[in-house]
Amino acid sequence: MRENPFRYGPAALGPHFADRVTEIETLVRDLRSRQHVVIISPRRFGKTSLALTARSRLVHGKVLVAYADLFRATTKHRLLEELGTALYRGLASSLERARAGALDLFKALPLAPKLSLSRDGSPSIEFGPLAVQEDQDRALQHLLDLPEQFGRERNRQVVVILDEFQEIVTLDPSLPAMLRATMQTQEHVAYAFLGSKKHLMTRVFTDRNEPLYHSARALPLGPITVSEFAPFIHRTFEASDVLIEESAIARILAITD
Question: Is the pLDDT assigned to residue 46 strictly greater than 90?
Fold first, then answer.
């Protein structure tokens, strides 16, 4: 049996990424210009694939990029670990991670970090429990300060991508205000906020009463256009040596339109 040449489910990267030429160029350009960006669209529209593709291009351009998927940040403790892991992977170089002192990134936190390996072998940061709310907030503030500290000390641009950002708002309504106060003092950092709960994300970034009101440029992400999707389908079939008639491709596009 032939392998299905298309990927559905995990992030579509490399040859599996359909050509969102305008969106990827706009996102990379804005983030390189230190312009904060917010992307709001339903799930399965390719937000994560777009962000990870942008990350690859930014890293190739010597930009430090920290990507955090906040979908699992159901508690503030989990938020600290997800953000800490993203910063460790994105800011510390491979050489620094090979040294025991790499965990000094977190030396100012009121907790001891522990390094472990995820199922895919990538490093993850775990923190001991913090019972006092003030200590959790102080630890979170330190993590939010790290990107600017790194960018300033190394004269490098830093990008922080927060996927499923609405989970932060649901977790603690005061967190957007903390983030806004931090963003206003950072000169080396650009943020990309991704969210799938349209009503919540729209309120956070367009309501005058919200701390993050007009703090990020909106990047619309709708369905992939037929003019982009058709050549992608053709190329994918050709690369897999699977023959398909033009009428079949037309039927596929009709379903996805």
Answer: no
